[in-house]
Amino acid sequence: MPDIEISIGGRNFTVSCQPGEEHFLRGAAAMLDAEAAPLVAQMGRLPESRMLLMAGLMLADKTAAIEDENRQLKLKLAEIEARPQPEREKIEVAVVPPGLRETLAEIAARAEAMAASIEDRLQ
Predict the structure, then answer these.
(1) pLDDT digits (tens, 9 = 90+) for 8-23
(2) Measured distance CA(40)–CA(70) in Å, rounded
(3) Residue 87 three-state SS
(4) Which first-to-last residue range defines the signal peptide (predicted)?
(5) I need a surface site. Which of 43, 49, 53, 55 has the fewest CB within 10 A?
(6) Spatial distance between the Cα atoms of 43 and 12, rounded to a whole number of angstroms
């Protein structure tokens, strides 16, 4: 079992952990140290047990607030997911008949021929 040296509130501690879990321990110690640092800065040197207790309580308070927010967000998500899905809007797209392009081209050609014929008569 590896021994890890951690620092909380300016004090060093040697703690054992399971192999491979050293980074979890260091992360937890860093969180506790972040809570202890302002306490030590405000109150000066505190007894070790009091510093750890206060830092632990502050960290527990933050954790409780996050858990409460998480619970509320899960309730909102469940409410949103429980809503019935709206019906999908149907969009109709006009279908161009297969011979329409040829018919339009033929009509355009006739119109042009008629216009040319009228121009010829006017001259």
Answers:
(1) 998 999 999 999 999 9
(2) 31
(3) coil
(4) none
(5) 49
(6) 19
Name the token pair of 21. Answer: 């879990």
Q: Are strands 11-16 and 3-8 parallel, antiparallel or unpaired?
A: antiparallel
Cβ-based neighbours of 69, under 8 Å, separated by 6 or more: none
Q: Which long-range contacts (CB under 8 A, 24 or more apart) does 52-60 make?
A: 52/8, 52/9, 55/8, 55/9, 56/32, 59/31, 59/32, 59/35
Structure tokens at 39: 């306490």
Burial 102-121 (b: 16+ CB within 10 A, else e): eeeeeeeeeeeeeeeeeeee
